[in-house]
Structures are given as structure tokens and as C-alpha cells.
């Protein structure tokens, strides 16, 4: 494409091919104009035409080699000042070269070019003004007139204004392009950071779901194993007890499967709204089966707490009871206490089993409990209970 279509709020710009064609057209126009302008201004002076070509031809490379082009044009201007005392057409190349230097070169190069242009304005003013007085015929009364500042000022200020305008336009274009490039770079950096945050958030979410799955699977399987063992022993003496126990096993299995489906739905990015909602404080009694030696001390009515706090308390009790079944021993008893205090919810699970001799809260279990409590800026204490056993105590701010 020759042109870049302007986006909303974005300035219109030429494309690479159109830019190159514009540079060639501009330089060609100035070079070709040197021939008629030299004839009209100087009466077919070959030297004036040569000076014009020396200053205009380098403009073909003004964008790719701005420093070299400016040096060539400035050198040709110096040669003109020393050998030819009249203005020539090729001097229009100097502001173009200075603009290109300030636009496509560095800031330092642009300032040096400005200084050279101001010096050139002073020299050109002197040379051209002196040439006018030297051209007067001898014998006239004003031949002895002393040239002063009033004679130099018009030339000097006009040339200085052209030099300053060329430098200012080029510098402003360079600054604006650098500003836009910086904005583009910042946009890309922000996009990369946003993508990285999204990746980290996804990894954190997968870790959270892994904790949830650990709690669900560990609790469900521990209950199923305990109930299955009880049903196996009870079947020999009382088949009705075995039937009830197997019903409990089926119920626990279905609940665990429902939660597993919900968590897998989260991993897939879609969750079936028909699946069970997040557990609440009212669901804590469902964690205790008929064969568990667990004493529940729950407030009545249950306190109204945020859903996240309720889920955290539920998972703490679930993980703690799972560890009691796995590590405390078959005869161990456990006590679960919930208390709503000022600004917080207290959760305590204490058993009288083997205690610290067989720590069942290591690995994902302990790490998951700590992460859940720390999310709410709460505190968690896990360790041997006085008199034996194991204790889990947590304070969750509400």
C-alpha cells in the first residue's frame, strides 16, 4: 500500500513506497528547476548552475543519510560564499537539508546544524550586501558609503527566520515521532504485562482448584473407606445396618462426584449452573457420618458471614476431619467448634488421637488450609493439643 489509512485519532501518513516517491519527486523538482532558474538569474552562468546542482542533488538521500547530505549541502554553500557572491537557486536546498537533519538525525546533530545555519546566515548577509555595493559604477557619490547594520539586517533576519523555521519543524517532527514510538512501546509492554498477569492468574486459579479437588477427593474417599469397612463387618451380624451404611457410602460418593464435576467445569472454563453451589456453614453437619466420633458445637442460628468465609470454614473442618480419620486412630474422638466473635469467625477442630506422632496435616492439606485463611487475613494454628491429640484453630475475620 502507498498510504496508511488514518485510524481514529491518528495522523495520516504516507506509506514506505509513497514516502520514497515523495523524496524523489521533491529532489527532482529542485534539481530540474536549477536549469531555468540559473539562466533567468545569472544569464546562463555555468558556475552558478554547477553550484545549484551540488546543493540539490544530495537531497535524494536526505532521509537515509541526513548527516552526509547536510554536510554536502553546507560544503557547497561554503564553496559558493567563497567563489560566487550572488544568490543561486540551489540555496533552497539548505533549509531542506537542515530540516532533514533535525528530523531524521539526532538532537545533537540538529543543534549543530542550527549553529551552522546561523553562521551561514551572517556570512551570506555580508557577502550579498557587499556584492551590491561593489556593483555600483565608479564615480557615483554613494560609492564611499560605509555599509552598516541597517544594510545587513534585512538579509540576516530573513535567512535566520528560514533557518530557525526549518530546524524547529524538523525537531518537532522528530520529537513527535519519538513520543509516538514510546507510546507504542509502552502499549506493547502493558499488553505483555497483562498477558503475564493473566497467565499467573490462571496458574493461581488452577492451584486453588487443585486444593479444592484435594479436599473433596480426600474427604470423600476417607468417608467411603470408613463406611465400607463398617458395612463389611456389620453385614455378618446385622444386614440392615450394612444396607444403611452402603446408602451413606452412595450418598457421599454422589456428593463428591457433584463437586468434582463442578471443579472440572471450572477447569474447562464453563460451569453448569445446575451443579451444587459452594458449601456453607449450614453444610458442616453433613461432613459427619454415623460412624464418626465427632461432637459438633455449632451456633444456632448460624452466623451470617460472607460466602468466601463460609467456604473457608467448611474446608477447614472437612480437611481436619479427613486427617482425623486417616491418622488419629480408629478410637479417636474429635470436637468441632464454631463461634462467631466480634469481627471474626473462630473454627476449632481438636481430637484425642495419636497427635503429633503422626502429623496428618502436611503436604497439600496444611498448605491449602493456610492459603485459604491467609486470603482473608486470618490466622491458623496447627499442632499437638494439650493432653494429647491434634488441634486446628483458625480465626477468620469477617
From TrEMBL:
Q: What is its EC number?
A: 2.7.13.3
Q: Which residues form the DUF7134 domain?
A: 19-177
Alphabetically sorted, this entry's keywords are: ATP-binding, Kinase, Membrane, Nucleotide-binding, Phosphoprotein, Transferase, Transmembrane, Transmembrane helix, Two-component regulatory system
Keyword Heme among UniProt keywords? no
Q: What top-level branch of life does the organism fall under?
A: Bacteria
Reaction catalyzed: ATP + protein L-histidine = ADP + protein N-phospho-L-histidine
InterPro entries named among the record's database cross-references: DUF7134, HATPase_C_sf, HATPase_dom, Sensor_HK_TwoCompSys, Sig_transdc_His_kin_sub3_dim/P
Q: What residue stretches are annotated with the Signal transduction histidine kinase subgroup 3 dimerisation and phosphoacceptor domain?
A: 205-270
Name of protein:
histidine kinase
Amino acid at each position: 500500500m502507498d498510504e496508511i489509512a488514518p485510524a481514529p485519532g491518528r495522523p495520516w501518513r504516507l506509506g514506505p513506497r509513497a514516502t520514497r516517491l515523495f523524496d524523489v519527486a521533491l529532489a527532482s523538482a529542485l534539481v530540474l528547476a536549477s536549469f531555468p532558474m540559473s539562466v533567468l538569474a545569472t544569464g546562463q552562468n555555468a558556475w552558478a548552475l554547477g553550484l545549484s546542482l551540488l546543493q540539490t542533488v544530495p537531497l535524494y538521500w536526505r532521509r537515509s543519510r541526513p548527516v552526509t547530505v547536510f554536510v554536502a549541502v553546507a560544503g557547497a554553500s561554503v564553496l559558493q560564499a567563497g567563489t560566487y557572491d550572488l544568490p543561486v537557486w540551489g540555496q533552497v536546498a539548505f533549509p531542506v537539508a537542515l530540516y532533514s537533519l533535525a528530523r531524521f538525525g539526532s538532537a545533537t546533530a540538529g543543534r549543530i546544524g542550527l549553529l551552522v545555519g546561523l553562521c551561514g546566515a551572517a556570512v551570506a548577509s555580508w557577502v550579498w550586501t557587499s556584492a551590491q555595493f561593489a556593483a555600483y559604477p565608479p564615480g557615483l557619490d554613494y560609492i564611499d558609503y560605509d555599509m552598516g547594520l541597517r544594510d545587513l539586517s534585512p538579509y540576516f533576519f530573513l535567512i535566520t527566520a528560514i533557518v530557525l523555521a526549518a530546524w524547529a519543524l524538523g525537531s518537532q517532527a522528530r520529537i513527535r515521532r519519538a513520543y509516538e514510538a514510546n507510546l507504542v512501546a509502552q502499549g506493547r509492554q502493558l499488553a505483555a504485562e497483562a498477558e503475564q498477569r493473566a497467565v499467573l492468574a490462571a496458574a493461581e486459579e488452577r492451584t486453588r482448584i487443585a486444593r479444592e479437588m484435594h479436599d473433596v477427593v480426600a474427604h470423600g474417599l476417607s468417608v467411603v473407606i470408613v463406611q465400607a469397612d463398617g458395612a463389611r463387618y456389620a453385614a455378618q451380624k446385622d444386614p440392615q445396618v450394612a444396607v444403611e451404611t452402603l446408602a451413606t457410602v452412595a450418598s457421599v460418593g454422589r456428593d463428591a462426584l457433584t463437586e468434582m464435576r463442578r471443579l472440572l467445569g471450572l477447569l474447562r472454563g464453563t460451569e453448569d449452573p445446575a451443579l451444587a453451589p459452594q458449601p456453607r456453614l449450614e453444610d458442616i453437619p453433613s461432613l459427619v457420618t454415623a460412624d464418626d466420633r465427632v461432637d459438633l458445637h455449632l451456633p444456632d442460628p448460624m452466623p451470617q458471614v460472607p460466602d468466601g468465609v463460609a467456604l473457608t470454614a467448611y474446608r477447614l473442618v472437612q480437611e481436619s476431619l479427613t486427617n482425623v480419620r486417616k491418622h488419629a486412630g480408629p478410637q479417636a474422638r474429635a470436637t468441632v467448634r464454631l463461634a462467631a466473635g466480634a469481627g471474626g469467625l473462630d473454627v476449632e477442630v481438636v481430637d484425642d488421637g495419636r497427635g503429633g506422632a503422626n502429623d496428618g496435616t502436611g503436604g497439600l492439606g496444611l498448605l491449602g488450609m493456610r492459603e485459604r485463611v491467609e486470603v482473608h487475613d486470618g490466622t491458623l494454628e496447627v499442632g499437638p493439643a494439650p493432653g494429647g491429640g491434634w488441634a486446628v484453630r483458625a480465626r477468620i475475620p469477617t
